[in-house]
Every structure is written in structure tokens, then in C-alpha cells.
């Protein structure tokens, strides 16, 4: 068994400082300038780390997000803070118009949100937050309140979002899988007529280098897709949909969260078998529809285009999280992570977001090559789950060292660890803190 390395100097104090600075009193912003509102999967990862600082604060992080849930069950990817100036972020509440455009789907009236979603890591986060202090959780009724919210969220995803008819969740916008600018979206996006350049303003370029961010052409397509979805009342599967993709990362996180939700159900006296059965069905569908033995990982599927997207993304490695994944497939995923396409342990210390050998690889540009801390936290967990303890230990050590050295950067160059994007990024700090605690290095 590998002994724990000492935590990099200043890790715990630095991580706490980031999370304290970015806390608003009810939730945590990912980064005050670039991302000044509450983001869905960010808050789940942030809660996982902040439970080591204050379990009650971690509970509140998730409860604030759940309070913005729509009537149809969706948890929106952004909850807008009305105190933030409208020009600080685009697309903001005036673009999404959730309380009016989303009325038919049950958008809340008292808070403005976006209309799309992000990966469903929330049940896993809720379970981990509960475990941090079961007495506090029980005293505040945390799981009892969270369970029906989470169950409705999963029903929405497995019902309204089974747009391919094969039992998997589909995404309807590149921002939904969280890997916003992945080369996996290039071919499906080519069908989308971009919004004219003069019709929107990119506030993101006020806080990040253009070379690190999506191109204007891609951004115009993102805006067009979001506007069309809004103008259709946020209805899923409409005849005019131009982007429908089954993503292995989204579905792997849903399966992991179904297993977590089964445990939550048992704790609150609900039927856990519903979630175990759904996890089994999703796992079978994931393997059947998205596993590619020749590639050695899971591929995205273009539902409208009718076939797999042959780009190798870190999303295709995330099914390592899935309990009960067939052993041969798990072993192949580990080989792929260590191989020439991702280079883990020899070319790279952290897994890149995209194929090192791919034609679209860019070590600096958003999700087209850089390494992200949430992806590597998930893969560390997956490696450990499938018995790859030495690789998991090495990945954990690399993540901790890189987080501190980069100033808790949003993402980093996968070869050099050079900081990219914004600094003082909340999920980087939160997940580094979680890894340090897991390694016995204290909070």
C-alpha cells in the first residue's frame, strides 16, 4: 500500500481561502469575475469539498440549488443572483427568460435560471455531504428534503431526455455535458447556423484570454441553440432540434448518482430498488450504445446524425465511476488512460480533456486538451473503485501538487501544469481539499 505524501504547503489554507472568498452566504460562485452566479455541477463538487469545512454550509449549497428546480424535475445549470449587474455575464437572465419562457415546464417564478442542465452529480454529492456529519444532516432533515428533489431530477433525465429511444440521457446543448467546447461537438454543431456576431456580447473575454476560450463561431452556435430552445418553451425533443447527443460522461454520472440515490432512499425509508434497477438498465444501455472496443473507451453518439462521434474525449473514460462495470471494459479504460491518447503517468500527470493525438488538440483552449480537476477527481475515484490503487494514488498526488502550484486554476496545460483560465476556482479548491482529506493529510 502506498503511503500518503505530505500535503503541498498551503493546500488546506489556500483551498479554504478560495472557498471563503467565493461564498455568497447561500452558495458559492465558481469564480467571482468570470462566473458570478451559481452553477449546477460546480455546486455539487464544491459541496463535496466544503463538507470538510462546514457540513451545514455544504448542505445549504445544495439546498439553494434545489430550490431553483423546475416543475418538470430539471435542475437548471445556472441560478442567477439578482444582485449581479446584468452586463457581468452573458447569457444572463434577460436572455434565458426562464420565468416566462419556461412557464409551461414549471420554471420557478421567484428566481431566474437558465433553461438547460448540467451533469447529474448531485445525488453523489448529497450522500457524501450527509456522511460528513450524519447527525447534522438528520437534525436539519437534509436527506429527507433532498430525496424527492433528486428523484424528480433523475425521472426527468431518464424520461424527457431519452431522446434517442435507447435508454440513455441525451443532451441538447454543448454546455449541458459540462465539457462545453469539446471537439466531440464539432460535427453536430456544424449543422447549426450561428447567431449573427453583433447580436450578443461575450462577457467571458473580459476575464480570460481569447486563446483559452471558445471561438466566436462556436459561441454564436451556442447562442443560437440556446435561443431556439428558449423560444420553443424549453420543450425537449422538438422537431426543430439541431443538437441531440448521448454523452458517456453524463450517463456515467447519472449511474453513479443512481447508486448513491439508492443508499439515500434506504436512509429515508423509500424504495431503494427503483434506483438500483434503473442503474442496472442504464449501465446495460451505456455499454450497448456507447462502448467502442476498438477505441478502448466510450464514444459520444450523435442521435440526429445516427452514429458514434469518433473523437476521443475524457468523457469516454468517466464510466470508470460505474459500479459493476464489466471487468474487461474497466481494464480497457485504464489501458486507454495510460496509453498514447491520454498519457497518464508518463506523458501527462493529469488526464487531458481530449486526445493528445487528436487533430483538434489544443493544450490551452477550453475543453480541447487542458486538464480539469473535476474530471481527474472523478477518474481518481473510478481508478480506486476498480482496484487501481497505485494509479489512483499517483493521480491524487499530482492533482494536489498542481492545484497549489497553479493557484487553484480553472484548468491547466496537461503537459506542464501551467495555469489556464481563471485562478482561485472553487471546484479546484474544493476537490483538492477533498483529496487531501482522503489521503489523511487533514483539512
TrEMBL record:
<keyword id="KW-0326">Glycosidase</keyword>
<dbReference type="GO" id="GO:0004573">
    <property type="term" value="F:Glc3Man9GlcNAc2 oligosaccharide glucosidase activity"/>
</dbReference>
<dbReference type="GO" id="GO:0006487">
    <property type="term" value="P:protein N-linked glycosylation"/>
</dbReference>
<dbReference type="GO" id="GO:0009311">
    <property type="term" value="P:oligosaccharide metabolic process"/>
</dbReference>
<keyword id="KW-0378">Hydrolase</keyword>
<protein>
    <recommendedName>
        <fullName>Mannosylglycerate hydrolase MGH1-like glycoside hydrolase domain-containing protein</fullName>
    </recommendedName>
</protein>
<dbReference type="Pfam" id="PF22422">
    <property type="entry name" value="MGH1-like_GH"/>
</dbReference>
<feature type="domain" description="Mannosylglycerate hydrolase MGH1-like glycoside hydrolase">
    <location>
        <begin position="35"/>
        <end position="428"/>
    </location>
</feature>
<comment type="similarity">
    <text>Belongs to the glycosyl hydrolase 63 family.</text>
</comment>
<dbReference type="InterPro" id="IPR008928">
    <property type="entry name" value="6-hairpin_glycosidase_sf"/>
</dbReference>
<dbReference type="InterPro" id="IPR054491">
    <property type="entry name" value="MGH1-like_GH"/>
</dbReference>
<dbReference type="InterPro" id="IPR004888">
    <property type="entry name" value="Glycoside_hydrolase_63"/>
</dbReference>
<dbReference type="InterPro" id="IPR012341">
    <property type="entry name" value="6hp_glycosidase-like_sf"/>
</dbReference>
Amino acid at each position: 500500500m502506498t503511503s500518503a505524501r505530505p500535503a503541498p504547503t498551503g493546500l488546506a489554507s489556500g483551498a479554504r481561502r478560495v472557498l471563503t472568498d467565493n461564498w455568497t452566504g447561500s452558495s458559492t460562485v465558481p469564480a467571482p469575475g468570470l462566473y458570478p452566479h451559481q452553477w449546477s455541477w460546480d455546486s455539487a463538487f464544491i459541496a463535496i469539498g466544503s463538507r470538510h469545512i462546514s457540513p451545514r454550509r455544504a448542505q445549504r449549497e445544495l439546498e439553494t440549488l434545489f430550490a431553483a428546480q423546475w416543475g418538470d424535475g430539471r435542475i437548471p445549470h445556472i441560478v442567477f443572483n439578482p444582485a449581479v449587474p446584468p452586463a457581468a455575464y452573458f447569457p444572463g437572465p434577460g436572455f434565458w427568460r426562464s420565468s416566462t419562457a419556461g412557464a409551461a415546464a414549471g420554471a420557478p417564478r421567484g428566481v431566474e435560471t437558465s433553461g438547460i442542465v448540467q451533469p447529474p452529480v448531485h445525488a453523489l454529492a448529497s450522500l457524501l455531504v450527509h456522511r460528513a456529519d450524519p447527525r447534522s444532516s438528520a437534525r436539519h432533515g437534509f436527506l429527507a428534503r433532498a430525496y424527492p428533489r433528486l428523484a424528480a431530477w433523475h425521472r426527468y433525465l431518464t424520461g424527457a431526455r431519452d431522446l434517442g429511444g435507447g435508454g440513455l440521457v441525451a443532451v441538447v446543448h454543448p454546455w449541458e455535458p459540462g465539457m462545453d467546447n469539446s471537439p466531440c461537438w464539432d460535427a453536430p454543431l456544424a449543422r447549426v447556423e450561428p447567431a449573427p456576431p453583433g447580436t450578443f456580447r461575450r462577457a467571458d473575454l473580459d476575464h480570460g484570454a481569447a486563446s483559452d476560450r471558445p471561438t466566436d463561431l462556436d459561441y454564436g452556435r451556442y447562442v443560437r441553440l440556446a435561443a431556439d430552445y428558449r423560444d420553443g418553451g424549453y420543450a425537449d425533443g422538438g422537431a426543430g432540434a439541431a443538437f441531440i447527443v448521448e454523452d458517456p460522461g453524463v450517463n456515467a454520472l447519472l449511474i453513479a448518482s443512481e447508486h448513491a440515490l439508492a443508499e439515500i432512499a434506504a436512509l429515508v425509508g423509500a424504495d431503494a430498488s427503483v434506483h438500483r434497477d434503473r442503474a442496472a438498465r442504464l449501465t446495460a444501455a451505456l455499454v450497448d450504445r456507447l462502448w467502442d472496443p476498438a477505441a478502448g473507451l466510450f464514444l459520444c453518439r450523435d442521435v440526429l446524425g445516427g452514429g458514434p462521434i469518433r473523437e476521443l474525449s475524457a468523457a469516454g473514460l468517466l464510466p470508470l465511476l460505474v459500479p459493476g462495470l464489466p471487468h474487461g471494459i474497466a481494464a480497457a479504460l485504464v489501458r486507454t488512460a495510460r496509453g498514447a491518447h491520454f498519457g497518464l503517468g508518463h506523458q501527462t500527470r493529469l488526464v487531458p480533456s481530449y486526445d493528445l493525438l487528436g487533430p483538434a488538440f489544443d493544450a490551452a483552449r477550453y475543453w480541447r486538451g487542458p486538464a480539469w480537476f473535476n474530471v481527474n477527481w472523478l477518474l481518481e475515484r473510478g481508478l480506486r473503485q476498480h482496484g487501481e490503487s497505485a494509479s489512483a494514488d499517483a493521480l491524487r498526488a499530482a492533482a494536489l501538487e498542481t492545484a497549489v502550484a497553479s493557484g487553484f486554476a480553472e484548468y491547466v496545460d496537461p503537459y506542464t501544469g501551467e495555469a489556464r483560465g481563471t485562478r482561485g476556482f472553487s471546484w479546484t479548491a474544493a476537490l483538492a481539499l477533498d483529496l487531501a482529506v482522503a489521503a489523511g493529510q487533514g483539512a
